[in-house]
Write a structure and sequence with these properties.
The protein is α+β, with helices and mostly antiparallel strands and 153 residues long. 38% of the residues lie in helices and 30% in strands.
Length: 153
């Protein structure tokens, strides 16, 4: 799956909203095997784009086309989500604290381990919401409707 996202990035392919659905758009002619791979994985590609866009709106940094997410909620305090396995359907969520510019973490708290990504995302989202509520900070704004999903990503 990761190779498809690498191809999407390298070929500057965009996911745009069209009527009630979404469409991959490019100015280049695609090889037939790549076109077939996109057709077979259409829903998974769209879901990953949507997950990455939602993560960015919430304030996460997205690495590896959605394989690894990082949210900094304090000075030296981070929340991580990492997809696992070949299919990347399961994930781990944990928090770590780094103090005084040290490269080694001072404390690690496992929030959830080896659970489906959707559940891991809900755990992380509820933690971020709790942090903002506790600090009485507003959540990040949602993007304009005119933006394509690629621009949100």
């Amino acid at each position: 799956m990761a190779h498809l996202f690498d191809e999407i990035y390298l070929r500057n392919i965009r996911l745009t909203k069209q009527n009630k659905g979404y469409r991959l758009w490019t100015t280049q002619a695609l090889p037939p095997e790549l076109r077939q791979a996109f057709k077979e994985n259409r829903k998974r590609i769209r879901d990953r784009f949507m997950e990455n866009a939602a993560a960015r709106r919430l304030g996460f940094l997205v690495f590896g086309h959605g394989t690894f997410y990082v949210y900094q909620y304090g000075e030296g305090s981070f929340l991580f989500i990492e997809r696992k396995g070949v299919t990347e359907e399961s994930a781990d969520v944990w928090r770590e604290k780094f103090f005084g510019g040290k490269k080694r973490s001072q404390g690690t708290v496992m929030v959830a381990e080896n659970i489906p990504f959707n559940e891991a995302w809900r755990e992380a989202q509820s933690f971020v919401t709790w942090i903002h509520r506790k600090r009485k900070q507003p959540m990040m704004n949602k993007p304009n409707k005119e933006e394509t999903l690629w621009e949100m990503i």
